[in-house]
Please model this.
Amino acid sequence: MAFTFAAFCYMLALLLTAALIFFAIWHIIAFDELKTDYKNPIDQCNTLNPLVLPEYLIHVFFCVMFLCATEWLTLGLNIPLLAYHIWRYMSRPVMSGPGLYDPTTIMNADILAYCQKEGWCKLAFYLLSFFYYLYGMIYVLVSS
Amino acid sequence: MSTQGNANPNSSVNNYSMSSTQNGGGAAPCQNGPGQMYPAMYTASSYYSSAPPAAYPTVAGHSAPPTGKTPVSSTGYSGNYYQSSSGLSPYPAPGTHQYSNAPGQSFQQTAPYAMPAGYYGQVYSHPSQGQTQPQPQQLQPNLMPASSGSNLGAPLYPIVSYPSAPGSSQYGTLRSSQTTAGQPPVSTVMPPPPTQSSLQQYSQGIGATPTPAQPGYGAPPLSQAATVNGQSNAVQQHYDQNLHNPMSHHYAAGPPNSQGPDKERPPSGTPGTSVHSSPQHHPGGDSSSTTTDSASPVPNSYESLEGGGYSDLAAPPAGVPAKQAPPFGYNYPTMHPAYQQNPAPKPNPSPSHGGYNPPGYQPYSQPFPSLSELSSALGGLGGVSELEAETLRPVNLLQERNILPPKRAPPPEPNLSNDLRKVNCSPDTFRCTLTNIPQTQALLNKARLPLGLLLHPFRDLTQLPVITSNTIVRCRSCRTYINPFVSFLDQRRWKCNLCYRVNDVPDEFMYNPVTRSYGEPHKRPEVQNSTVEFIASSDYMLRPPQPAVYLFLLDVSHNAVESGYLNVFCQSLLDNLEKLPGDTRTHIGFVTFDSTVHFYNLQEGLSQPQMLVVSDIDDVFIPTHDSLLVNLKESKELVKDLLNALPGMFTHTRETQSALGPALQAAYKLMSPTGGRVTVFQTQLPTLGAGLLQSREDPNLRSSTKNVLHLGPATDFYKKLALDCSGQQIGVDLFLLSSQYSDLASLACVSKYSAGSVFYYPSFHHIHNTAQKQKFQKDLQRYLTRKIGFEAVMRIRCTKGLSIHTFHGNFFVRSTDLLSLANVNPDSGFAVQMSIEESLADTSLACFQAALLYTSSKGKRRIRVHTLCLPVVSQLSEVFAGADIQAISCLLANMAIDRSISSSLSDARDALVNAVVDCLTAYRANGSNIQPSGLIAPAALRLFPLYVLALLKQKALRTGTSTRLDERVFSMCELKSQPLQQIMRMVHPDLYRIDNMTEQAALHLNDSVIPQPPLLQLTAEKLTREGAFLLDCGSVMYLWVGKCCNETFIRDVLGFQNYASLPSNMTEIPELQTTYSERTRAFISWLLESRTFLPAFHVVKDDASTKTSFFQHLVEDRTESAFSYYEFLLHIQQQMSK
Model:
């Protein structure tokens, strides 16, 4: 049993995924508030937009770490989400600042529903990957 | 950055942070991006308002930078700051006056400041302007002169129209709520000095109001009745718009504090019912269903003012049968005797109804909504009515050649009982795509038709009941306004028709001021009319109602001067200056811009207007805060001087750049303390400063059949600015008069999200394009004089189970059912897509209510409420029978435009075709007894393919035909923001043959005979060389004259000898004294009767080059790149058989 770089990557990913889970929960709550009229869309977009890039960068960061650690299976599991993030950011509305959400279109029922669904899917993905990283970390620690 | 929402963790419905938007000085939540920087670093308000006279030498010598301004720009600042305040030469040619940074030039600058009669002296010669006390911390200096200025002259709004309102006026309520309930929140909304002065005004108003002692419930005093009439007059004066003469308007009718004397009352007009209910009843604890929510004593957002969602979800009282169908179809007249037999309230507890009735009122002999009444109210819902059979008649589209009805078909009538139909909202105001609402989303999906509403909420109305009441009766849980479709369970309780909650009837509501009788709540005007307007109390205000404030932002670059629009505009404004809607508080201001931004000091008392030039467009600032927006009444002469001088001032300008972005930022700063309307005139692409745009159009791709690019904005600068403006209640209207590409797709955002309107005059020139000039003049005339509502919000509520999916129009969506409208104008329409979330099986009627809360130009807070009631059906055939094809086409057009911007134009076009294919397939699948051959549509939908084809050939959506990008985008803007009728005329114009009109079937109106020629199909086949045809496209009218046209027609109507002598650019029909001419003109003016904007008129000769613009409207014909109608039908049939 030795502490390898792969094990370190898994531990780091574990911690960062916990952070991403919080991001996802925050996202879900925010859109729920929008839907139930509690918040002004302008405020809500202003709070959500700065969080988009950090979330994506965190994810990119541990993907790169897995690449360096040559954990191909784990990287492969994360590639779809990575691709989705890139696509999502490429197709964002015309904006000068960072972020994805436009207060003038966010109240459209389709977009609102899409964002909510996105939040739930991501939450599920991060939760599952959290346990997968836990398993992966133990496996790497035990097997090496 | 605005973190108001975050700083407010205890957010409830009412805490929702529009409050921060409202307190003008605070951090506006919409300020993000570049917008947030300037207020912080520019502390000019303290600088200017507190500057002692000793500060002038500092400025004049500019040895030290002025306080509050960043030193970096100080030289430029002092160099060209007040360029021309010298009274001797107030209007230097702008090109020669750029003495910007050269230090030597400052000597010229010292002169104006040293002059005793210079700019600042003005302030001190008028100490009563409220400027003498230094206000170092005052954040909103502009509001000061606004209210203090009005203090000098005529009284403020509170005592203007209701001088002797008995009992407590709404302003009395305002005072009490301000002083007792919430001083701290109010003080954030208003600057301290106006609060003081307006409080004084309020108390005056209260002091003047007699408070009659009310002897009892049943006997209101006679003085009450007198006020009812007086009230009626005053209101009548403002709101009865005469449809027959759209140009006549009622704002010029004397000073507003005239009592609305009887002689001013139109003698034969339909009287607007006006109600002032007796306010002195002691409201019982059980009757306060309308005061502000329990959530907070002082409403801190418009959200809470208009009433949020289900904040108070109380359980329905016990004893109400839960499963009973909601008794909507309640028949009021039959109830009348029942009420009459209880003339006076007396305690008489009833054994049988003890659970229901509050003590004090006699019980009724039977529960109100008996089943028999219900079924009778629902009319012919049981069996298929004749009407329905007709609308369901299958039509084989391929065989039916003349599919158009001879007249424009009226909208389908909802299948309701006569009583309900009579009170239902006018289809011009409120229309639903399906007049029979399907019960479930599954049924709606089966029909493949869109469900949605088309609204024209602020339409000019001929008759509008205006109600002044202390308590506006609303449902306690969903905040629905009481309306004709609620049901009265007994005399004391009513059941909401949207959420089915049982509410109490307040005492005040029991008295009917129209009949002056007591105990007839169902006879009140609120429950007799589906369109009513309430005068709102202070509960509906966040700040005192704003005055009408107009700012005109004029492009004066070389391009603009060349086009000559300034002349037209100035003349038009001069003519209409008196007719601008407003009262004594009306403010006006002007800003011009080329590569710099010019402000005009119009302070009363100046001998001439002074131009102030700000050339620092990277960080534009307001040179002076108190005299750029001036009271129109006080400075009228200066305004007139300016308007007379403006066209001449820039004639020799060589400036070709346009700094629209900085000018808009300046306008925003100037207006943000009050809100109001900014009117922008722009003639080219903005090329300088923030928001500069590049040309994105490739002329070679104008007629591409592939994808059209650049339909969306290039930058979000204009959108952000619009959101900032919307937050400060500023609406921006855009007039684009441009011959080149100006990127309307980006520019229009500034109007789109601030609830403004967009006007576009391609290739405008005052000499070369007279038709366009005339159109511009006519539009300006209407634009300047039309009614306007400020700081408005509109909420749309619907029966539980229905929900709003998407809004279309110009506004900002603030929450799922609330639109924020900085300005509302009578010419804008809205569309709403709906979805059915829960089954409507337990109800037989679905209702929609649109409530528009706005500040009138007279400074009154008003609520206009429209309620529409429609039956719910469970059969697919009934859904088809109730389809309103015009409304469906409009909604589809709106959806297609959204699609073309978010996805692509070809996607949008495919979606439109698929809408027809899907719908007709669904109909075929449903009807089993129809022969399989042919293309079958129900009669109600027989025009569907035609309208969709017409939509595909619109400028907005067409491909293959050369279309400028700006014209395409403008067409999209129009489709999204025009009311339904205007859109329908634009999409499918009306074609008439007018050279052989007979008096057969003519209309006889007021001694004039109006011939009624039949509508013709829009195909060249219907045109003959011998005829003359009128094509009415809404905003433009063509009179096509055939080569061999009857010479009598040309001579008697057009005033020319023969066809050859007709000029090719005729733009009006002369007024000739022949019957032929009179008849033709009578017909045309009849067509124009209900229009607000008069169309441009073109006489098109058959051989003229302009005839392509006429022929492009003949949508049934084949063009190089588009189907003919018959081909389109075959295409649909082919698609269906796939």
Summary: Residues 905-926 of chain B form the longest helix (22 residues).
